[in-house]
Design goal:
Length: 343
């Protein structure tokens, strides 16, 4: 089946009831609209909300806790020690490459198998009505999944490994500050919480850069071929975009951290991208939501492009006028912004 991208430009401002009917027709599933503001950066500050956010994200078996557990396992069992990384050598670099390749392959592959091959959840909580594209020259190999696998496992794994290798070498040789849990327990735990926030800040600004017409047409358009996203879409990027995206890891070059922080960041940027691009909002087990995955916030970006550059927990899109709340009015504003940008 050949993919087609629908033209959803509104011609008028309909009533609220009509808007909701239109949204239901356009999507297989969407959360309650308009999207609310879940950001922790609220004014006046709300300590109770902040504590609830911390509890949801760090005191339950959330996706971030799962990633932190994975980071500890990678540090203890799989990645080479910092002592090994004091000198560049093929052996330990190849070890990291193989681990990263397997980690991306297993994460994206398992999610793709579960949701799109086995169809274990059917279309429950799936945003788009359509599935992954096939038999379309838009994609390398005429297949969206093969195209996404090629870019994720090729350029993606290679550059993720390169950034990790350089960072480990800097840490091992004392060129960047490092800590241990025993020395700085408060900062150790705080930095784990901060890393996703830093990633969101970095992502918003580099993402806006990538949407400037020159870079969009030559670089970022490759990622945006994925309108109906799937797990393999998240890390599928042009090599230039991979480089820009992964510069978020350079924070470990200047801020005191432990290898566990670096590996948590690696998991967050690599396998985490597959989780956030499943095209489903949550993993259901016995019809109960057990693991947060994709967000309608980012799904709107993949359909309408010039909106929601960041993520829904951080306030940047709201503060800088690029927020799409899922309404028809927001779609009109976004399409007008796109027309101004690209003429």
């Amino acid at each position: 089946m050949t993919d087609t991208t629908p033209n959803l430009d509104p011609l008028a401002t309909p009533s609220v009831d009509t808007q909701m009917q239109d949204m239901t027709r356009e999507w297989n599933y969407h959360p309650e609209l308009p999207l609310q503001d879940p950001s922790i950066f609220q004014w006046p500050p709300n300590p109770a909300y902040l504590l609830g956010w911390l509890a949801r994200n760090w005191l339950t078996l959330s996706e971030r806790v799962c990633m932190a557990i994975a980071a500890v396992a990678l540090w203890y069992f799989f990645y080479p020690s910092l002592e090994t990384a004091q000198s560049f050598a093929f052996g330990w670099i190849a070890q990291i490459y193989v681990i990263n390749f397997v980690m991306i392959f297993v994460t994206a592959g398992t999610l793709h198998w579960y949701f799109y091959m086995r169809k274990a959840q059917g279309k429950k909580l799936k945003f788009e009505r359509r599935d992954q594209g096939k038999n379309n020259k838009l994609w390398d190999f005429k297949d969206q999944v093969l195209d996404n696998m090629f870019w994720s496992l090729g350029s993606g794994v290679l550059q993720l490994t390169a950034f990790q290798v350089v960072t480990m070498w800097l840490m091992a040789n004392g060129y960047t500050p490092t800590i241990t849990f025993a020395e700085s327990p408060v900062w150790f735990l705080a930095f784990l919480v901060i890393i996703p926030m830093w990633s969101a800040f970095h992502f918003y600004w580099v993402h806006r850069l990538l949407h400037q017409p020159f870079l969009y047409r030559r670089v970022h358009a490759l990622h945006h071929r994925n309108v109906c996203i799937g797990p393999w879409s998240g890390f599928s990027m042009h090599p230039v975009e991979h480089f820009i995206y992964l510069t978020t890891l350079c924070i470990h070059w200047v801020v005191a951290s432990h290898p566990i922080h670096l590996y948590f960041h690696i998991v967050f940027q690599g396998p985490g991208a597959a989780m956030s691009h499943t095209g489903y909002e949550d993993l259901l087990i016995k019809d109960k939501r057990k693991l947060a995955l994709g967000t309608f916030y980012h799904q709107l970006h993949h359909r309408y492009y010039e909106c929601n550059y960041g993520n829904q927990e951080m306030p940047w899109d709201r503060w800088f006028g690029t927020f799409h709340d899922g309404s028809t009015e927001a779609t009109a504003e976004t399409r007008a912004r796109k027309k101004r940008m690209f003429g």
